[in-house]
Amino acid sequence: MSVIARISSLAMRDRITTVGFALTGGWLLLVALFWILTPPQEDASGGIARLVATAGIVLPVALVWLGVSLGRQLAILRAEAQELRDRLNRLQPDYQPADDYPLEAAEPARPASVPAPVQPRPVINERPARPEAPTGDPVDSVTLIRALNFPDGPDDQEAIDALRLSLKDPANSRVLRSAQDVVTLMAGRDVYMDNMPPEAARPDVWRRFADGERGSAVAALGGIHDPEAMEIVTGMMDQDEVFRDTAQHFLRNFDSLIERVVPELDDIQISVLADTRSARAFMLLGRVSGIFG
């Protein structure tokens, strides 16, 4: 994690910890006031009464600090997701199209009374063609598959280099950026691709999908069956217009990637591709959207 992301994460965790201390102090103050202001009762001195009283004091404090712990972990995950987004933005090469060439000023008209001298026929210079956006060098399948899984952290230099190379190609860049968007949005709702190991489909099913088959013939590609994750993502698709548009954009881009890349892969490479974070997001969103039948 970078220094800026670490500072942001620590600041958020400090605020969460401060809230935890405040809630704990407030609860203990209420307990102290209760014991001070409540008159003692003779029939409340048994073991069960003391056990209930102790549990009533300790359990709320434990729940508060459980919430603090979860909040701190969520702050770390959000900082890492933001760092990944910033890293992808830095890796994308900028392309600035050349400015239009200025048109030459028209030659002023000559007076009608003065005969124009004979001039040689000018040679018309055609305007140079506007340069096209660079397409980048094609990347090999291993590099692209590694990029589709995204880096495991700032020390995963191989994945970072693979991302840098893959982002130079516009088609790959569209897939990677849309995949990163949906993975980040789902992580914000506690749906993490690392926790979604799919049921592996046979490579020939992926090849049939690449050939254009849809429906029950490729139903095995919807290999993620986590009911809680599917319920969350279904709700996001129904209620969050931004997520729905982002997910549909990703599905189209990944569909095109499969049609373009899978025919060139062997069985092992297809299996590795299917286990990437991007492919898991495709399986989950495709299953929720019903594209696998």
Could you walk me through the main structural features you see in this protein, from its secondary elements to its overall organization?
- Helices cover 61% and strands 0% of the residues.
- With 293 residues, the protein is mainly α.
- The chain has 2 domains: 3-91; 141-289, no CATH class.
- The longest helix has 45 residues, at 47-91.
- The chain is elongated.
- The two termini are 41 Å apart.
- Mean pLDDT is 77; it is low at 93-135.
Care to give the gist of this entry?
This protein is mostly helical. It contains ten helices and no strands. The longest helix has 45 residues, at 47-91.
- The amount of beta strand, in percent, is under 5%
Number of domains: 2
Total DSSP E strands: 0
Classify the secondary structure makeup into a structural class. Answer: mainly alpha
Spatial shape:
elongated
Roughly how much helix do the residues carry, as a percent range? 55-70%
Uncertain segments: 93-135
Mean pLDDT comes to 77
- The number of helical elements comes to 10
Distance between the termini: 41 Å
Please outline the major beta sheet: none
H/E topology pattern: HHHHHHHHHH
Radius of gyration based on Cα positions: 31 Å
